[in-house]
Amino acid sequence: MNTLLNSPSVKNITKKMSSLHFVIAILFVSTLYVSVCNLMFAEGSLLHVSDYTVSLLGKYLCYALLALAVDLVWGYCGILSLGHGAFFALGGYAMGMYLMRQIGDRGVYGNPELPDFMVFLNWTELPWYWAGSDNALVMILLVFAGPGLLAFIFGTLAFRSRVSGVYLSIMTQAMTYALLLSFFRNEMGFGGNNGLTDFKEIFGFSLQSPNTKLALFVATAVMLAIGYALSHFIVNSKMGRVVTAIRDSEDRVRFVGYKPQHYKVWIFVVSAMLAGVAGALYVPQVGIINPGEFSPLNSIEIVIWVAIGGRGTLYGALVGAIVVSYAKTRFTAIMPEAWLFGLGGLFVLVTLLLPKGLAGLVTNLMDKIDPPATEKKPSSSDKNDFNKSKSDDATLAVENK
Fold first, then answer.
1. CA dihedral 74, 75, 78, 81 (to 10 degrees)
2. Residue 205: beta bridge partners?
3. CA-only gyration radius of the chain, Å
4. At 123, is the secondary structure helix, strand, or coil?
5. What is the pTM of this model?
6. At CA 140, angle to CA 138 and CA 142, rounded to 5?
7. Nearest of 158, 98, 108 to residue 134 by alpha carbon
8. DSSP element (H, E) containing 289
9. Sign of the CA dihedral 315, 316, 317, 321?
10. What share of the chain in percent tops pLDDT 90?
11. Phi, psi of 377, rounded to the nearest 5 degrees
């Protein structure tokens, strides 16, 4: 194994491929593999990937995009948000409103203008905020604008007041809990406790069609790749380096002339929009959106994904979300009454054995392939030059006096 890792070809490949190229290559290969195995191989074949698995993988990729959004603000800016589930749910509701309008007169009550839950509640017309919800462009605008506007208002108020640390985390929890209680109310016009469901089609294609499910999976993979490339560009740009400096020492950044609150609001809004896109892709693949998505527990679980994957490493967030989501699926099937203990045990083990998360394993592996250059020990000639320089400086200081 060590021979393979230390071979010149492997070293050359790892040097040429950044994490961006590597993640996009993995996404491309895995998406192509799932698509080909779903379309080309019949049921019963060992290589066949079922429609259920395709939808499940699509859901995992949505979670990965959501974890990427949280890692952007927590791992690189030090903002521990425990309310990102709210942005995810708002994006989901924007998509859900569009899908509800696509049902038309095929609902239970056959009303072409009003969703079933509005007919049941004796509503006679759509509320003003549903205007244009049957238009795909309006829906896409709402997916970005809804979470982005909420993040801008919340971030401006919080960061201008210099709220940080545990106080900010509590405020984000309060925000998502307030939205949870609001969306439970039937008067809000979002289906109350039952939420929005019974979707029929998206962009004219049936949601029950296997081809539509596969297309949604591919679209999610593409959006995840775009989101990863955007995040990679941000953290490696000058603004990204300022954001990282704010995480390490906000007071020093402010002292040298920057305004940290502006950068924090900006990165918070970008992150919220990414979470909104994840929610919009999630809803047509699971077929429902309800107030439970605003639950504070959901937002805490997102932070656990990032912690297990490796905070401050974009690919670690993706790995953490997929690994934990898969473990949750397996645990609920194997031990439905004790799956929370299994998930908690996994979190404890990773925290104790891998303080840098699963990404720490990757870093150690890369160090074995290409060890970092050791610090050069000063030679005797360097020491003589250093002593000569000190002597010259002392002579110059005496002459200046």
1. 10
2. 202
3. 26
4. coil
5. 0.86
6. 70
7. 98
8. strand 288-289
9. positive
10. 54
11. -75, 140
C-alpha dist (Å) from residue 163 to 168, 169, 261: 6, 9, 10
268: helix, strand or coil? helix
Q: C-alpha angle 131/270/130, rounded to 5°?
A: 10
pLDDT in tens, 50-106: 999 999 999 999 999 999 999 999 999 999 999 999 999 999 999 999 999 999 888
Q: Which residue carries 């829906």 as its tokens?
A: 139
Cα 72 from Cα 87, distance rounded (Å):
14
The token pair at 135 is 């238009």
How far is it, in rounded angstroms, from Cα 207 to Cα 58? 14
Measure Cα distances from 345 to 67, 202, 323, 334 in Å: 20, 40, 14, 15
In the chain the first and final C-alpha atoms are separated, in Å, by: 65
Residue 56: exposed, middle, or buried by beta-carbon count in 10 A (0-12, 13-18, 19+)?
middle
Which residues touch 100 (CB under 8 Å, ≥6 apart)?
115, 133, 196, 199
